[in-house]
Design brief:
- The chain has 207 residues and is α/β, with parallel strands linked by helices.
- It has a single domain, classed as Protein-Tyrosine Phosphatase, Chain A.
- The chain has eight helices and eight strands.
- It has helices at 5-10, 22-31, 54-63, 72-75, 93-97, 100-114, 132-143, 160-168; strands at residues 11-16, 36-39, 67-70, 119-123, 147-151, 157-159, 193-194, 199-200.
- The chain has a six-stranded mixed β-sheet with strand order 3-2-4-1-5-6, with helices on both faces. The protein has a two-stranded antiparallel ribbon with strand order 7-8.
- Strand 2 (36-39), helix 3 (54-63) and strand 3 form a beta-alpha-beta unit.
- The longest helix is centred in the middle third of the chain and has 15 residues, at 100-114.
- The two termini are 28 Å apart.
- The relative contact order is 0.21.
């Protein structure tokens, strides 16, 4: 199901760089009339696609007529502090969402949306189902009445409502008292610790 024109006008978009060429990614942004790229990677570097390193994508976006804003410090999905991870390495999104710096990032995004800007939250992961730009940032924006739609690497568009409908059809685990157990608000994949450098790395492709 594709969002209609009215829904699109109220939406914030998300988009993953994946392994696209720079030209193809920017063409995808033009197709949906995106005006500003909001880079939400905690670590804005891409070893396999260096054209998406922060300085490179910023220069290319500006040269192509897009705005570029780096907001990985406020809205990134891989904080350095271990308090934001469980014992298995999953990122605990509820803890990030409670931070004042995250709230400030959300307010900055809302300010641009109120000014009529068409924004795309961008990072590395193609599939929004596994990306913090949807699971964390998009969820908070959706709870504040903002529509969310996802631009895919192949140029297609999928509405958040369609992803939510699919998730609701997945059977949920029952509690001991017969109720339905709500899933924890955390990353779908763990961010594993790289013992060589004492740092966390993300195996999902999302930064």
């Amino acid at each position: 199901m594709q969002p209609d024109a009215e829904e699109e006008s109220r939406a914030i978009f998300t988009a993953g760089f994946s392994n696209l060429s720079l030209d193809r990614f920017l063409d995808n942004m033009r197709a949906y009339e995106i005006q500003v790229l909001v880079d939400v990677r905690s670590k804005p570097f891409a070893s396999y696609t260096p054209h998406f390193n922060k300085d490179s994508i910023k220069a290319a976006a500006l040269a192509a007529g897009f705005g570029y804003r780096y907001m990985g410090r406020e809205l990134g999905g891989l904080p350095d502090n271990p308090v934001f991870y469980d014992d298995a390495g999953h990122v605990l999104y509820d803890r990030i969402a409670a931070q004042p710096w995250f709230e400030q990032g959300i307010e900055n995004v809302l300010f641009d949306l109120r000014r009529g800007k068409r924004l795309a939250l961008t990072c590395g992961e193609d599939d929004p189902r596994h990306c913090h730009r949807r699971l964390l940032v998009g969820r908070v924006l959706r709870e504040r009445g903002i529509g969310v739609a996802h631009i895919l690497a192949n140029g297609g568009l999928i509405a958040e409502a369609e992803l939510l409908d699919a998730e609701r059809r997945i059977p949920r685990q029952l509690t001991l008292f017969g109720g339905v157990q709500e899933p924890e608000w955390k990353s779908t994949w763990p961010a594993l610790r790289d013992d060589r450098h004492g740092e966390r790395r993300d195996d999902s492709g999302d930064n």
